[in-house]
Specification:
The protein contains four helices and 13 strands. With 232 residues, it is α+β, with helices and mostly antiparallel strands. It has a domain of 153 residues. The relative contact order is 0.13.
C-alpha cells in the first residue's frame, strides 16, 4: 500500500516510509495443469446509460472463463514484518479459518461461481527465519491417476500426488513446530501407491511428525466471528 505521509509529521520525515507491506504475502494463483477456455462464454455485452438524455450505449467485454482448473497458491508469514505491524499469533490462527470460509462463502459474483477450497496447509517452523521454500510445488497432479488435462471438469477427475510433500516434511521433522491443515472430503490424494482421502492424510501427517505437531483446523468452530475480540 502506497502512503503519502511527508509533511504531515515534519519531525519524522526522514524516517517515514512511502509504502507499507503487510507481513503476510500470497502469490498469484496458477493452475496445476493446462486448461481449456470455455468458448461458450467468450464475450459479454454491457448496456449503460450515457449523456444528458440517458441514451443507452453498449460495448462488448471479453470473457475468458475456463472449463476447469485446480489452482495453487502459496504464501509466507514474515516474522520480522509481523513485529513491525504488531501481527499476533491469534491473527494468523484467524487467517487459517478465514482463507477457507472466504472462498466457501463469497462465490456470489460471476467470476467466482463454482470456486471451492480443497486443501489449506500452513507449516509453522521451530527455528526462527528457517523455511523450506516453495512447498506448494511438492504437491502436484498425479498424471497417471488423473484424467487427461483436456478432460478435467470436476475435482473427481483429479488425483493429487502428496508423496514428495510428506517426504520433505519427514526429512525436516525436527525443524517443524506445527502443521495446520484442513482439506475437502472430495479431494483425492496419492501416497504410497494408494489413493487416499483427507482423513488418511491427517493420519499420515501425524505418523510423520507426531500427533502433537498436527493441528486439524476446524473452520466452522474456530474463530466463528469474523472480527477479533477487542482485547485480542
Amino acid at each position: 500500500m502506497s502512503v503519502d505521509l511527508k509533511g504531515k509529521y515534519e519531525d519524522f520525515d526522514d524516517y517515514l516510509p512511502d509504502h507499507l507491506q503487510g507481513p503476510v504475502q500470497f502469490s498469484p494463483g496458477k493452475s496445476m495443469h493446462s486448461v481449456e477456455e470455455n468458448q461458450e462464454y467468450n464475450s459479454l455485452t454491457s448496456v449503460i446509460a450515457t449523456g444528458k438524455g440517458k441514451e443507452q450505449g453498449g460495448f462488448d467485454l471479453d470473457d475468458h472463463r475456463i472449463k476447469y482448473a485446480l489452482i495453487r497458491f502459496r504464501g509466507l508469514v514474515d516474522e520480522h514484518g509481523a513485529k513491525d505491524t504488531q501481527l499476533t499469533k491469534s491473527d494468523i490462527e484467524r487467517l487459517d479459518t478465514l482463507c477457507w470460509r472466504a472462498l466457501k462463502n463469497q462465490t456470489t459474483s460471476r467470476s467466482k461461481i463454482g470456486q471451492e477450497p480443497r486443501l489449506y496447509i500452513r507449516v509453522e517452523y521451530a527455528d526462527e527465519s528457517f523455511h523450506l521454500g516453495d512447498l506448494s510445488h511438492k504437491i502436484q497432479v498425479d498424471k497417471e491417476r488423473s484424467e487427461p488435462d483436456e478432460q478435467l471438469r470436476t475435482i473427481q477427475d483429479i488425483v493429487v500426488d502428496i508423496e514428495p510433500f510428506i517426504e520433505c516434511l519427514s526429512d525436516n521433522a525436527s525443524r517443524i513446530d506445527t502443521i495446520h491443515v484442513v482439506g475437502s472430503p472430495s479431494l483425492q490424494l496419492s501416497h504410497d501407491s494408494d489413493i487416499i482421502g483427507i482423513e488418511t492424510l491427517y493420519t499420515e501427517l501425524e505418523d510423520t511428525l507426531g500427533a502433537d505437531k498436527v493441528h486439524r483446523i476446524n473452520v466452522h468452530n474456530e474463530f466463528k466471528t469474523t472480527l477479533p475480540d477487542t482485547d485480542d
